Amino acid sequence: MRALLSCEPGGPDSLKLLDVAEPVAGPRQVVIAVKACGVNYPDLLTIQDLYQVKTARPFAPGAEIAGVVTSLGAEVDEFAVGDRVAARIGTGGMAEAVAVDVGRCAPIADGMSFVDAAVMQFTFETALYALRNRAGLQPGETALILGGGGGVGIAAVQVARNLGATVIAAASSEEKLAFARSHGATGGVLYPTDTPQDRKAVGQRFKEAVGGGADVVIDPVGGWLTDPAIRCIADGGRYVVLGFTAGIPSLPLNLPLLKNCDVLGVNWRTFTLTQPEALRDNKSQLERWYAEGLLSSGITAEFALADGGRAIQRLAERSAVGKVVVVM
């Protein structure tokens, strides 16, 4: 079978499409013929050895997949050959098949396509965990979503809307803002792609966009944006840290003090490992919204396996709008 492998640390152009041995299911594992693999920013970090979890090489990037069970390991009775399943796997997704622990697999809901099932794990589950479990977003509150046209952003826009919030998307281009509005944002604010001379002016722009103060700020971007974004938070607001596509910021701690706000970290990986009941509840909620037509996967680009490096490059350039998926 074929797999797109990282054989040494490097960028997307370092990946190699190679023939490898077919995977064999170990005890409590299934082998999945991969139909689709979602592409996420951690894929870029992982192949560069910059992610917090290191993976032994060679490995295929790709943390979320959907496909069909082709074989079962010993002691597996949750699934049968032919079942449609989605799985969160960390790495290994950009391959034609992969062996996966059954605890990482879930049935794909009726009526959901493989591409939608693949991409509606990592970002959508992160967004719901961040907004509902961590930030406690309430109906009628205002949520500012940074990177509102990206993969995490478009998931957070829809989840916040479904939780009853007024959603303001912030993005680096009019194209991304339009995409966020088409998925439920009621307002939008543009920020520069490069670090501006006057960050306070950007903070004022944010503050005007949210009507004086945001109850919740979702930040998967970081970098210079953190400073102006936290300046627009309301008294008692919650600033939720999801990632650092623009770099890890240094936050002046006088700002949380002056704003009387909370700064909350979100580690979705830890959540999936330590809170299985809450994870199942969140998955069920997302499936209900999808069935009711209240969630869109937000896929804007599909790539073949051989072009998986190009898919990751889209995220490296921060040019991706919505979700990107590799289709086998």
UniProtKB/TrEMBL annotation:
GO molecular function: oxidoreductase activity; zinc ion binding
Domain Enoyl reductase (ER): 10-326
Lineage top rank: taxon: Bacteria
Protein name, as recorded: NADPH:quinone reductase-like Zn-dependent oxidoreductase
